[in-house]
Amino acid sequence: MIKSSNIGYPRIGENREWKKTLELFWSEQMSEEEFEKEMKQIRLSHLKKQQDKGIDLIPIGDFSYYDHVLDTAVMFNLIPERFKTTNGKLALVNYFEIARGSKGKVASEMTKWFNTNYHYIVPELTKVEPKLMENRLVHLFNEAKEELGIYGKPVIVGPITLLSCSKGFTNEQRASLLQSLIPLYIEVFTELRGAGAEWIQIDEPILVKDVKEEIVNELQLVYSAFAQNVQDVNLIIQTYFESTEYYKELINLPVAGIGLDFVHDAGANLKLLEKYGFPNEKYLFAGIIDGRNIWKSKLVDKFDFVKELSNKIGENRMFLQPSCSLLHVPVTVKNEQQLESQIRDVLAFADEKLDEIALLTHVFTEKQQIDDLENYDKVIHSFKESAYRNVEHIQEAIINLEHYSSSRISVEKRKQIHEEKWKLPLLPTTTIGSFPQTKEVRKQRLKWRKGELSDKDYEQYIQSEIKKWITIQEEIGLDVLVHGEFERTDMVEFFGEKLEGVAITKNGWVQSYGSRCVKPPVIFGDVYCKQNMTVKETVYAQSLTDKPVKGMLTGPVTIINWSFVRDDISRTDVMNQVALAIRSEVEALEKHGITMIQVDEAALREGLPLKQEKTEAYLNASVYAFKLATSSVKPDTQVHTHMCYSNFDDIIHAIDALDADVISIETSRSHGELITSFEEHHYNKGIGLGVYDIHSPRVPTIEEITQNIKRALEVLDYRAFWVNPDCGLKTRGEAETVAALKVMVEAAHQYRVKI
Ligand code: GLN
Ligand code: ZN
Question: In which pathway does it act (predicted)?
Fold first, then answer.
């Protein structure tokens, strides 16, 4: 009989209880005892929910107080020197110190978990002494067993993925680190078996990335050691996010189960399975429901697919599950009552995805019928026919994209025109867009949202902020000004609210890092823009000054990468729809006299595919969408863009191909590396490498900024260089912002005369 399983469940809770509990504890408004009690309740309620839904194999240990990679590292004593305690134990506060830093101790780095927007804490393996500290999985397994009678499936990050996601060691050290980890994993598994665990899920998502010889060898070594030393418990090697590049190796490993993603990568895992077969003594954990998106699945199609699989594998050897942990989707659609019902009806968040798994499984076990699946799918079919998904002029535009210009006259010619038009000084100074979103700004917005402040009063308040900051910018002596983005909560949500075909959920939160959650907009229909989105504020700002004010937009690639995107048409089509909407806004700004326009692509790099072979197609589509959005302007309009990362050796050609007149890039976090990318690539357009770090309230000194300019000018043409901070100043305080910008402008002035 086919059974159901889950890979991981969101931690944050239906109403972000998890986040609130964490923040209460961090701000010392909750004792450790209360915290543990509260967290236990949240954890158990999540398990109970899965149990009530009838999921056969429920994951244990996926719940975390911060991050599951950190949990694994801590369990094996992989703790950076600076956080070690004298008694060798790691108290809760010390655990959080690693993630968040504390006085005098810099937090461990965090970085994106594969191609998701979840950030994990990067284990630092310099001078560590791996040993098994507390086996948290046994504790959690027992808890679920005793409290709820659940015989769960403990989940652990596998040793190969753990090492591949860590830093601070050489290749030779990697081998010995692995050797020392193997017996520790074995100890964990053995104790779990002792507690009664029958299944253990070992997450090895690294196996979906491009093949490395070293990993092929490690797989053999690790998993045969596990097989020799752990008996009577079924180990599942779990992959997700894409198809595996190690299929042949996987099927020959001595494990009981293999977990594969059958949703992403256009059927690649199925093809592998057909080509190389699947061993009949093993269990297949089939990821069939998309764990990365929020749409209901067409269950009749899923049923057919599973049927086909089960003909090959045998129903007794199959578990149905999501394609990856449900950590990457919001908790439940239940709380989205404010959404129009036809939209809400096609959504499935974590809870509803588990219902889909349960329903499908029940049809195989004949508790439910095919009819139930057909009924389920009806809303999806009818939504496909809805006006939202059939906006004729948009669909026509997408078919006829060649009618829309996507390139401009040469950058050399544009440069000349721009020089004559603006007569900017050498090393022009500017900022990235946002100014401090103070408590007051947020308070006024909330009041307006609640209806306590009229549209007019809110607008007036925003105008007063714009005015204040135009004056401040003039006093500081910046050359190119911005309106400050006070009307925006977030650079993507703001456009999500204005665009047709995009919905904002009330509670569709997803964990991004630690207690920080994001609420991606939902692109459900054809996207277009009915009215101007940014013209009013920008034109108002420009009316107050003779200096140029930059228009400020978010680019199509970033909007797509930070949203949940409809899956009934291609992602590229959706991206081009968004590009056309942004294009119309660019044109509207231009028509109203705003002729310096910045289109931010903060998330371009984030969307890079996991596999090399897909990179080029992604970058080509991204560059095209950006150019589609920005190329219809007149030659004398200057297009800017901004990116918040410095590591782009591998994408510098694409960045150049965007053909933006000016780009600003974050640099403070790795100045040296960035400079080398430019040494090799001759970049001939305007460029501003952030000259100070905006992530800290510290006011930089003139010397530091001067030094940063100097280093940049060693490789970049001084005639093309702009002086700006690293990123937007939204999260900073007002006083420190003004102080820092004054220093920046002064540094630029002093430097100018030296050139
Ligand atoms: N214009 C945006 C701002 O200044 C850019 C934000 C970003 O790059 N993340 O806030
Ligand atoms: Zn940025």
Answer: Amino-acid biosynthesis; L-methionine biosynthesis via de novo pathway; L-methionine from L-homocysteine (MetE route): step 1/1
The pLDDT of residue 228: 98
Other Cβ atoms less than 10 A from the Cβ of 68: the count is 23
Residue 514 DSSP class? T
Rounded CA separation 493/483 (Å): 18
Residues 230-274: pLDDT tens digits? 999 999 999 999 999 999 999 999 999 999 999 999 899 999 999
Q: How many angstroms is it from 730 CA to the middle of ligand 1?
A: 8
Q: Is 372 annotated as a binding residue?
A: no
Q: Can you list the pairs that 124-127 forms with residues at least 24 positions away whose Cβ atoms lie under 8 Å?
A: 124/78, 124/80, 124/166, 124/167, 124/168, 125/78, 125/163, 125/166, 125/167, 125/168, 125/169, 125/173, 125/177, 126/80, 126/81, 126/168, 126/169, 127/81
**H, E, C per residue of 129-166:** CCCCCCCHHHHHHHHHHHHHCCCCEEEEECHHHHHHCC
CB 74 within 8 A of CB 94: no
For 317, the 3-state DSSP assignment is helix
Ligand 1 pocket, residue 432 CB under 6 Å:
yes
| CB atoms inside a 10 Å sphere around CB 405 | 12
Tokens of 384: 């496909």
CA of 491 to the centre of ligand 1 (A): 7
Q: How confident is the model at residue 676 (pLDDT cuts 50, 70, 90)?
A: confident
**Which amino acid belongs to residue 207?**
L
Q: What share of the chain is helix, strand, coil (3-state, %, to 5)?
A: 50, 15, 40
Ligand 1 neighbourhood includes 600 CB (under 6 angstroms) = yes
ipTM computed for the complex: 0.99
Provide mean pLDDT across the span 322-349.
98
CA distance 428 to 687: 10
What is the reported pTM?
A: 0.96
CA distance 347 to 333: 7
Specify the pLDDT at position 672: 60
Would you give the end-to-end CA distance of the chain in angstroms? Answer: 77
Q: What whole-number distance in Å separates Cα of residue 586 and Cα of residue 598? A: 9
Distance CA 47, CA 22 (A): 19
Residues 252 and 357: their CA atoms lie apart, in Å, by 28
- pLDDT at residue 259, as a whole number: 98
Annotation marks residue 328 as catalytic: no
Q: Could you tell me how many residues make up the chain?
A: 755
Predicted confidence at residue 539, as pLDDT, reads: 98
Residue 584 has a CB neighbour count (10 Å cut-off) of 17
Q: Which residues contact 294 (CB under 8 A, 6 or more apart)?
A: 329, 330, 347, 348, 349, 508, 522, 564
Distance 121 CA to ligand 1 centre (A): 24
